[in-house]
Amino acid sequence: APPGQGSPGITDLYFNLGIKPMAKVAAKFDFHYFQSAKAVPVGVDNSGNVIKDDNVGWETDLALSYKYSKNLCFTVGWEHFAPDDAYVGAGNPDDPADHLWLQADLKF
């Protein structure tokens, strides 16, 4: 949210799909669409009226897991975030972001 306006909260509308093609391998795909609980100012039109929007952006996630043993699982993932007007209007960059990550879960 813009300075002084606080954080209105975010609604995460999503769906996910998962498959397990082999006993030790699993894949997961998620799609998220984020909306602000309250429309925020994003600009001014030609008449000087403030334009508001509640569309924050969308994200896709893809993860692949390999269960090495009963106590150890490795996961590699990719995330892509595409900002929308409410995200940019709050002073954030308009650039899409990609993240690659690797995780090891160890149970003991």
Explain this structure to me?
It is a single chain. The protein has 108 residues and is mainly β. The chain contains one helix and five strands. The chain has one helix at residues 85-89; strands spanning 10-22, 25-44, 50-69, 72-83, 97-106. Strands 1-2-3-4-5 form a five-stranded antiparallel sheet. The longest helix has 5 residues, at 85-89. It is elongated.
Mean of pLDDT: 90
Task: Indicate the overall shape.
Answer: elongated
Number of helical segments with 4 or more residues: 1
Tally of DSSP β-strands: 5
Termini separation: 42 Å
Query: In percent, how much strand structure appears in the residues?
Result: over 45%
Helix/strand-derived category reads mainly beta
Order of helices and strands: EEEEHE
Main sheet strand line-up:
1-2-3-4-5
Q: Gyration radius, to the nearest Å?
A: 19 Å
- Binned, the helix content reads under 10%
The major pleated sheet works out as: 5 strands, antiparallel
Enumerate the spans where pLDDT stays under 50 for 5 or more consecutive residues.
Answer: none
